Amino acid sequence: MQHTAHSVWKNCLSFIEDNISNQAYKTWFEPIEAVNLTENSLSIKVPSKFFYEWLEEHYVELLKSALTKELGKGAKLVYSIKMENTQGKKKSHTESIPSTQRSNVSAQSVEFKSSQKNPEFKNPFVIPGVRNLKIDSQLNSNYGFESFIEGDANRLARSASLAVSNKPGGTSFNPLLIFGGVGLGKTHLAHAIGLEVKEKFPDKTVLYISAEKFTQQHIESVRKNNRNDFIHFYQIIDVLIVDDIQLLSGKKGTQDVFFHIFNHLHQNGKQVILTSDKAPVDMQEIENRLLSRFKWGLSAELMSPDYQTRLSIIENKLYRDGVEMPEDVIHYLAENIKSNIRELEGAIISLIAHSSFSRTEVSIDLAQQIVKNYVKKTSQQISIDRIQQVVSEYFQLDLELIQSKTRKRNIVQARQLAMSFSKRLTNNSLTSIGKQIGKRDHATVLHACKTVDNLKLTNKEFKKFYDDIDRKLKET
Ligand SMILES: Nc1ncnc2c1ncn2[C@@H]1O[C@H](COP(=O)(O)OP(=O)(O)OP(=O)(O)O)[C@@H](O)[C@H]1O
């Protein structure tokens, strides 16, 4: 049978699929297209230079084995790379690079750089009339790594943040996206990276900006007709930190400008750090081309801290503020405020304020009052475990059955309800919900949420199940 680029690549893919994780296969191999086959050389088209670099760094041996198996010893692989033009002036073009010949790629970056020597830029942080070309990092010196307490819930995000600070732009965590629920330390960690970079590499230009402020600046630049200056300003940053990136949702113009800035920084080895209250898969109204870039590096989730970490956070805060508090009060706070560290800190401040205003000791009674009055919502925030328990009791099904792989209709339905309520009532991401309810992936949880929404509208019996469980959860 005649070999074609397509058939050779298909065989390579099935070999590759057997040798790596499903996730890695989906991320790095599914987007590749085979484009050409000449004698013993196969050309494959990859979506970006970053993609090519990643394949070369991590999968070159695997690709070599797969190709040698198909085309024999002298097999060659040529990448055809779609080069984005970040300035939007020229059209994007395709570049062919043989495997393991990185010099061609760096030449491309240099060429790109030289095309915009000494850009005239204006600093949008400068108040009009005040001459200041120095860029203030806008970092909060209280948010260093030393005051960020490590625990199971933040270990990955913290380690990745440290790695990025040690080698900004030089790790595969680019962009680094830190995501998680409200008040769990995303902003703190993002500032910690910036501060550490400034400490280790004083010559690097670091900038922290909230997505909201970035949007305002962009709108202003359009109004004043200096959008290009705005873009140039951001393109000279070495480490760009954008907080609450989900706020770009629905803002097409700002997304477009951010896309160009992001591409430029990324292609020039600059580090981008993003924070968001949701995982990329859960972000709505963000263009796909931007979402796919968010997923290029590492998405690290901050989850609610466990008891021990909460305890350490309280002790650390008291120590830094030079305040003493009875042990039982500290334990009471750690036990009762579970899912938002900002509220945990708020309760400590309230306690101290109350006791000093009323000149009374900080006591467990006072702590109970504060926790009840100030953080009522938090202390009662429902957990995924509780939701699963309520669903399992309601349907009189064992928890293990709900979490099992069985496809029996009634059990699937109970599982989907647990997933849907977890999405609605907790801060957890789809990935985290899936992990906790039967080790499913985020797509299964998303599907469950959609199914529940549909069934609620179309099936009366199901609607009753839903409302009953909803009521029970509210009583919790
Ligand atoms: N692991 C931690 N150790 C010590 N303090 C922490 C930790 N995590 C969060 N905090 C503190 O909790 C407070 C809230 O953190 P931060 O503002 O970073 O949360 P966030 O996730 O960005 O919240 P939001 O979603 O509202 O933007 C801050 O004062 C921060 O210092």
UniProtKB/TrEMBL annotation:
Single GO term (MF): ATP binding
Binding locations of ATP: 183, 185-187
Source organism superkingdom: Bacteria
Domain AAA+ ATPase: 172-300
Keywords, comma-separated and alphabetical: ATP-binding, Cytoplasm, DNA replication, DNA-binding, Lipid-binding, Nucleotide-binding
Official protein name in the record: Chromosomal replication initiator protein DnaA
CDD domains hit by this protein: AAA, Bac_DnaA_C
GO cellular component: cytoplasm; plasma membrane
Compositionally skewed regions (Polar residues) per UniProt: 95-109
GO terms of biological process kind: DNA replication initiation; regulation of DNA replication
UniProt xrefs under SUPFAM superfamilies: P-loop containing nucleoside triphosphate hydrolases, TrpR-like
Domain called Chromosomal replication initiator DnaA C-terminal: residue spans: 383-452
Sequence similarity: Belongs to the DnaA family.
Region (Domain I, interacts with DnaA modulators): 1-96
The record's note on its domains: Domain I is involved in oligomerization and binding regulators, domain II is flexibile and of varying length in different bacteria, domain III forms the AAA+ region, while domain IV binds dsDNA.
Gene: dnaA
Role, per record: Plays an essential role in the initiation and regulation of chromosomal replication. ATP-DnaA binds to the origin of replication (oriC) to initiate formation of the DNA replication initiation complex once per cell cycle. Binds the DnaA box (a 9 base pair repeat at the origin) and separates the double-stranded (ds)DNA. Forms a right-handed helical filament on oriC DNA; dsDNA binds to the exterior of the filament while single-stranded (ss)DNA is stabiized in the filament's interior.
